Amino acid sequence: QKAGQLFSGLLAMNVVFLGSAFLSSMIFNHVAITLADVWILLSILKVLCLCWITYYLLGTSRQPHAVLYRDSHAGPVWIRGSVLLFGSFSILLNVFQIGYSTILIQCKSRVEIVFPSIEILFICTQAFFLWHHSKDCIQVQHNFTRCGLMLTIATNLLLWLLAVTNDTIHMEIESQLREVERRFAGKAPVPHPYLGNETTSCICPNTTICKVFQKGYILLYPFNTEYCLVCCSVLYVMWKNVGRRISHHVPHIKPQFKLHGVVLGPLLGTMTIIIGICVFMMYQIQATGSAPNRQVFVMYYSYYIVLLPLMSVVAVIGTIIHALEKKELDTLKNPTRSLDVILLMGAALGQIGMSYFSIVAIVATDPRDLLNSLILSYSVLLIFQNITQNVFVIDGLHRQPFVAAAEARHAGHAGQHAAASELPGEEETTTSGKEEHTQMSRDIEREMKEEQNHEAYDQRQVSMLELGQEIRKASLSYIHSYSHLSWKRKALREISFFLVLCNIILWVMPTFGAHPVFENGLEKSFYGYSTWFAIVNFGLPLSVFYRMHSIGGLLEVYITA
Amino acid sequence: QKAGQLFSGLLAMNVVFLGSAFLSSMIFNHVAITLADVWILLSILKVLCLCWITYYLLGTSRQPHAVLYRDSHAGPVWIRGSVLLFGSFSILLNVFQIGYSTILIQCKSRVEIVFPSIEILFICTQAFFLWHHSKDCIQVQHNFTRCGLMLTIATNLLLWLLAVTNDTIHMEIESQLREVERRFAGKAPVPHPYLGNETTSCICPNTTICKVFQKGYILLYPFNTEYCLVCCSVLYVMWKNVGRRISHHVPHIKPQFKLHGVVLGPLLGTMTIIIGICVFMMYQIQATGSAPNRQVFVMYYSYYIVLLPLMSVVAVIGTIIHALEKKELDTLKNPTRSLDVILLMGAALGQIGMSYFSIVAIVATDPRDLLNSLILSYSVLLIFQNITQNVFVIDGLHRQPFVAAAEARHAGHAGQHAAASELPGEEETTTSGKEEHTQMSRDIEREMKEEQNHEAYDQRQVSMLELGQEIRKASLSYIHSYSHLSWKRKALREISFFLVLCNIILWVMPTFGAHPVFENGLEKSFYGYSTWFAIVNFGLPLSVFYRMHSIGGLLEVYITA
């Protein structure tokens, strides 16, 4: 097993390195390696992935005993939903691109229609694959499946890298164009970067549809990067689950998303979002205008400086409540959770790194200026907020879900279920003895069916007699559990809901174009244009991903609280 | 426990980020942040570490029940030896620097004597600490110790970062100076980078001692970088071992380093080293001369192209023999080994990344040129060699040591020891129930002592009578085991010894100044000076560390084979 993981990991590493070398060559030497070359490489990879996915869907997964176990933690609904959502936006993006290229067909090559088509096919197939198979613990063709998964992960990573470098260079070009525009007071289109110097000849005709394609392309771009990263994380969990065997004894009672009793968090959060959107609008109008004035930056940073300490304090309170609760810790093996923790910590590094660079730059120049002191406190608070939120979420993810027990009691099988769920999750990861195992599992299934029939028979007898009593009992217990939702659980839910809403607005702002770290010009002049550009290039996409990922983590904390 | 690890990890992360922001500011904005500022920051960190180490040596480790267990895998002799070796070279380096600054005291500030003094104190204390305490599994003041260790790790990492950036920029300055020298045919000293523009006023007087200080400084520099990394890895293992409890039932029988029966490997390896040194000498003389000609590059790369496939093939054969042997795998928890595996894979990334960049550059320019095709095959072979060697070493590290059993049989206690070593290592990482545990361990110690006394008494009775017979038996068993060293074990030893020697020469060449990736000019012109410089800056120190680390790993494989 280890050997298979090592081998497939090495495969992915080599593909990623080759791809990044290609990408860097394209960035630093436009002439020798063009964007078309990179696209050819990526298309080859995509076609290989498509072949493997098709083979998996039609061959591997349909073999007998291929998927005996499903990891109930893997691929929760919100992850699969975001795969679908971001996937459909990415498809739209590619459709726009095809449309744009078709209008300007006279100066663009045919391949610019072929590549997006392959991309669309790849996104559709992958989304379908992930929606249906993200929980699989495949038991056949281990090594081939591992290699296929790793190849797909590598392809997605490279697509992300391309999107990130493209996105930021696109930003750069846009800002340069704005200057040109200002100078000539004419209208210039947003050219596709790297693809030669057809900028001058390729001008978007003044039709609405062309403008729509251009604008849509710019708006939808961020979703594409998120799509790649989300796919990577789901695929990684699948890769970890290859060959894993999960005991049948752990029934996973899904806690439901319910809103009862939670008031303060949503209220405060919605207020934050509304104010945030106003600030964002004003920022966008002012900062993308002719000359960004100081006032708009002061407003933007003030908003953050009010919001961030609030979030930090709330997260600290949440952590303290977690410590007070003394709920038992969930120590079962759970690749999804381990990955979540690593991603939270890793993605936070981007934001924290950027903040430290800002801090050093400001302290070294002039920390007493109003705007500078605002940026300084903004950076410090951001670091503090990231750390406290991470501690809160990681702490919350390791708690046993509370609702599970309550639900079980509701259903009236409390004793039985509790006994079952208290059994330690015996995990066997050996791959031998497949035959006996499937025999065993069939036996268990038969037993379970008999038990169910028996229960059903019993209940039918009972139900006629005690129906009224049952209903009364159920409604009583509901009211009971509702009113007795302890203050600790209530507070945890309020806190996590509030943090979810805050993270949404903090995700929206950088995703849709507010990049004050770049636009305020302070760090840019301190580190020099290209250095600061590289730092932002690394940090910003990670911080956007961090916000999205912590929304997921916080939702999980909310549900299990 | 997890909380303590998380907290101390966050501390280290923040320190490292702050330090790297300082370093980057120094590199990209010489005026605002000078090298002196960075030194002040690092000196503060060093003093904090010194305080903690002193407290640990005098306070924590002397408390009752502080060190009940020692991790026998941690801090093997070759690691502690290299700490001492590199540490003493680093001290020498600092002495040279102090001497150099004292000679040029009229144009240098006093702090340039103060900082190296602090550095010397830090290196001495740390080396002493690591020599004596690297095996400790400390049981008191967990969190404080974790934070102290993490602070020391962060400081060492920052020292490494500073050394790496300094080292390469030093290279750059040297190469620029050579040009200046050529132009003016005069003599210019090697200035200290960053420390303002005293270059012109600070010329080394034409005394021998000043030249010695300069040359020694340049020669000893690489050891300093290695020292920091080695310290980091030892400290990390100590950090992982804080609060760990190890069962007393697993006696660790140290396999000895013996050379009997191994001939072919050392012979071939020594030949390789001798040829390598000749190639290196010629390269150094030619390439650092006025105009490096193609011939010397052809010679250098040819040497590698002959050597690398040989190493790869040998490693593959070794892996196959490992697979044939069917020795049981060692699956006990072992932080030292996990770290070794991660470091091997991580450090290899530097070399592999650089190779991929070279490949893309060559393929995109002109792969048919003689020198280019040599570089191309060199890069491909290097990737292949790194991967095969990693697989071989990782495979070898996970095998049960063979010698242990043989030694045990020698001693005549075969049954007893084998039974003891087959017991699974029961590890308890809970921190509660300390009292009972220490009670238990005292009981066990008393028992063991009694047993030993008993054995000794028995043996004394027996010894007088059967001494002659014993000696005869021992020598017979020695000859027996010597001749019956199975061909598989013999082959494994030959292979690992050969690879050790090869890695030594591959370590010596880049460490002492052969950097053809930089001097051949191909990639430099393709990616542009600064980009390629950054790539080499990242890759080269890692590849040097990789060679050193794989020497350690291969020695372990040799001993346990």
Description:
The structure is a homodimer of 561-residue chains. Chain A is mainly alpha-helical. The first copy, chain A, has two domains: 1-187 and 204-249, no CATH class; 260-403 and 460-560, no CATH class. Helices cover 76% and strands 2% of the residues of chain A. Chain A is built from 17 helices and four strands. Chain A has helices at residues 2-28, 35-58, 77-103, 111-133, 142-184, 208-241, 264-287, 294-325, 335-365, 370-397, 403-411, 414-422, 434-483, 487-511, 516-519, 522-527, 529-560, and strands at residues 67-70, 136-138, 245-246, 427-428. In chain A, the strands form two sheets. A two-stranded antiparallel sheet of chain A has the order 1-2. A two-stranded antiparallel ribbon of chain A has the order 3-4. The first copy, chain A, is globular and about 65 Å long. In chain A, 37% of the residues are buried. Chain A binds chain B through residues 6, 10, 13-14, 17-18, 20-22, 24-25, 28-29, 32-33, 349, 352-353, 356-357, 359-361, 364-365, 383, 387, 391, 394, 398, 526-528, 531, 535, and chain B through 2, 6, 10, 13-14, 17-18, 20-22, 24-25, 28-29, 32-33, 349, 352-353, 356-357, 359-361, 364-365, 383, 387, 391, 394, 526-528, 531, 535.
